[in-house]
């Protein structure tokens, strides 16, 4: 049972050497009398930026998950039930939720978030568009962004797991949508494949305020916040009256020991803007409604989803740290097995 262990708590940018591949052993049986434990074969592991926050000692992140050196990482995954002590699951069920970064896991049933009922779409989608990032985009954009037709929407980290969906949900709502991303190739995909009205490479823009003024001469109604820092500061200057900022994440800050200051916060009250942070779990009750909305769009080809899959658990550490230099193109996934 190969596993990815956290070697040390991380300060600064994570490195592959902060993790190690360990050959563990596991008895492929649910221990006698364990009515709440499920044995999983992990098929796809999801690389998510929040995992870096859990690598910090005394993590400020309140999601009920903790990392400790000498233990496997925890993350989202798609898994197959090998054996179950819990009555809700049986051998052969496909599930998604939190699992350990290893080939086989014994998990308490609470870590399984949903059973997978629809298998006519790629299973890997349950790490992304049909899983946690999909719910993040859906809840953050519709529940907190409160979009209306014609709203002007800006999405940062727009080619990533969450951002590419927010942009497409905005287009389905008949909004005007602009995304930022870190390479010209990503910018092209946003415009040509994912239907964004405009996109720009934030690394090539010396003056983000000027760039936003170019794309939003009348200002921004919704800013879907994925990156924080300088981008947020420039956005605040360009928000419209009564604008909304769902704060999904601030990836530009996770590796900084000294976080960047944001100077334009007074614009929140000048323009009566609502800025609200969230963790995806608060939207989980919407999952059935979300599937009803998103599955037909996938099946009819009205939503595209870009994935970036690497093979084998040994690829896990480099795949994960690549998120912080934009090496992923779309949803980053580590495939361990197909069935
Ligand atoms: P992505 O698939 O978007 O991968 C991360 C991307 O962030 C990279 O590809 C890179 O793209 C960009 N990035 C990395 N460093 C920086 C930086 N310093 N400045 C600007 N961009 C940077 O990840 P996700 O879609 O999974 O996550 C996006 C955001 O959503 C993150 O902040 C994450 O923490 C958050 N999140 C929050 C959840 C919640 O419950 N609140 C749940 C899931 C995600 P590029 O090439 O464009 O720079």
Automatic annotation (TrEMBL):
Q: Which UniProt keywords apply?
A: Oxidoreductase
Q: CDD domains from the xrefs?
A: double_bond_reductase_like (cd08295)
Record's InterPro entries?
Answer: ADH-like_C, ADH_N_2, GroES-like_sf, MDR_fam, NAD(P)-bd_dom_sf
Q: Which Gene3D superfamilies does this one have?
A: Medium-chain alcohol dehydrogenases, catalytic domain, NAD(P)-binding Rossmann-like Domain
Tell me yes or no: is Oxidoreductase among this UniProt entry's keywords. yes
Q: Which residues form a coiled coil?
A: none
Q: Does the keyword Lyase apply?
A: no
Q: Which residues form the Alcohol dehydrogenase-like C-terminal domain?
A: 161-294
Q: Which domain of life is it from?
A: Eukaryota
| Name the record gives this protein | Uncharacterized protein
Source organism per UniProt: Stylosanthes scabra
